[in-house]
Amino acid sequence: MQKIIILDFGSQTTQLIGRRVRELDTFCEILPYNKYPEDDTDVIGVILSGSPYSVHDPESFRLNLAAFMGRKPVLGICYGAQLLSHEQGGRVEKTDSREYGRANLAYVDTQNPLFEGFEQNSQVWMSHGDSITAIPVGYHKIASTADVNYAAYAADNQPVWAVQFHPEVYHTLQGMQLLRNFVVGICGSHQDWSAASFVDTTVAELKEQLGNDRVILGLSGGVDSSVAAVLLHRAIGDRLTCIFVDHGMLRKNEFTDVMRDYECLGLNVIGVDASERFFADLAGVTEPEQKRKIIGRDFVEVFNAEAKKITDARWLAQGTIYPDRIESLNITGKVIKSHHNVGGLPKEMNLQLCEPLRWLFKDEVRRVGRQLGIPEHLIGRHPFPGPGLAVRVLGDITREKVAVLQDADKIFIDNLREAGLYDKIWQAGAILLSTVRSVGVMGDERTYENPVALRAVTSTDAMTADWAQIPYEVLAKTSNEIINKVKGVNRVCYDISSKPPATIEWE
Ligand code: XMP
């Protein structure tokens, strides 16, 4: 299959380049800068990413450009553009001020295939400290802005292009056009990477890889594991056994609703109600990390006990997606999120790992899910933390407190759905501030009860998030319903903190 290789020099927008290329229905792989796959004949083009480094930093990344220069079309972005200049006899100099933000292409050569369809003055997004002050011999300028002479340049006789700005970000208004010009026009992508083709090829590969073996998969009710399960089921049918553990801290009715959905999808699911054990082990524990540890440990033990009963299993399947793997590969050495496995499966089971979604970004997982006929309410679900409502009840956890929170949470989510806001929000939920009590008045009675905080955020990846600007009427209706209907709650607050510095969850 045709592919674009994106060599990663550690920029925060490298993943975004990958997502944009996929939006052009073209497969791409993001690889560390020095891991160009020389023997891969499917490569149709190479993109060099940006970087937090300067080409003058002693620790900046270098690579063997000869492996692909002149052989495949190349596009350098930001640091990638500077590196191409620096390595080939051009000049890159430190500038006093970092150029950051919007700029306009005062000159752009629309005859150049990279800029086909561009308008003069097109808005681009700059983010760089160094500037290219001379381009190498054999290259010519194809765009500039008021402040940046070499906003883009190209080789005279080789398929090489370089842009100082970031075409992958939204603020470069014709960025998608530029990437399309490169990926489709220049590299010749057939644009045949689609959800339908992914399903067909992956099902065929899974049949080949798994043969007649039995596979176990842990279901969480979330999008990734659900899509992985349905894909595997299509390949191997009932030789897939799914395990869905209920720790008692899911949303209201979630376990039964999701079990019903899974059964409708034809999946072979073992539902395990282990809530007694989780509540018993959590009794009296108030410290958030301690709660997480207990839940993590119990989860593995419960899952393993079930998995062991499936004695002929050969594989453990997981819904790991591409960003999980890129983040764990992060070349700058700063691990942002470590990729969590089901963790510590008994060695004697000797299971091999199967990760059918390992090449997909989240939006692609959803597209594949739709292609597989998974109902929209499963595909569009908000992310939900593994420890569930345990990290949304402050202080110690009891079944009663979780039940109170479930009721308040349901009212909030139902109101968001009713107002047509659910799909516009990344994640929402309620938090029971059970360590706080405040005075209220209900009828003629004084109350002294717990507050509930509502949290709703917009985000694209949970790394940063903004509090969602929900209309007052929706907040007012939610607050009224919670206080009137949920016993034990006499006050409702709305959390207006963004991340950073706050986090999405309270614990
Ligand atoms: P924070 O609170 O760190 O959350 O801003 C970022 C995203 O991660 C989810 N989250 C978790 N997911 N186990 C999980 O599986 C956890 O312990 C956990 N803690 C937070 C959170 O819901 C949000 O989507």
Describe what you observe in this structure.
The chain is α/β, with parallel strands linked by helices and 507 residues long. Helix content is 31%, strand content 24%. It contains 13 helices and 20 strands. It has an eight-stranded mixed β-sheet with strand order 2-1-3-4-10-9-8-6. Strands 13-12-11-14-15 form a five-stranded parallel β-sheet, with helices on both faces. Strand 1, helix 1 and strand 2 form a beta-alpha-beta unit. The relative contact order is 0.09. About 2% of the residues have low confidence. Bound molecules: xanthosine-5'-monophosphate (XMP). Xanthosine-5'-monophosphate (XMP) binds next to loops. Xanthosine-5'-monophosphate binds next to loops.
Task: Give me some keywords for this one.
binds xanthosine-5'-monophosphate; 507 residues; eight-stranded mixed beta sheet; 20 strands; five-stranded parallel beta sheet; alpha/beta
In summary, what is this structure?
This protein has about 500 residues and is an alpha/beta fold. The chain contains 13 helices and 20 strands.
Task: List the SSEs and their pairings.
Layout: E1 3-8, H1 14-23, E2 27-32, E3 43-48, E4 74-77, H2 79-87, E5 91-104, E6 107-108, E7 123-134, E8 139-144, E9 152-155, E10 160-163, H3 175-186, H4 195-210, E11 214-219, H5 223-236, E12 240-246, H6 254-264, E13 269-273, H7 275-282, H8 288-309, E14 313-317, H9 322-329, E15 352-354, H10 362-371, H11 376-379, H12 399-418, E16 427-432, E17 438-442, E18 445-458, E19 466-467, H13 472-485, E20 489-494
Parallel strand pairs: 1-2, 1-3, 3-4, 4-10, 11-12, 11-14, 12-13, 14-15, 18-20
Antiparallel strand pairs: 5-7, 6-8, 8-9, 9-10, 16-18, 17-18, 18-19
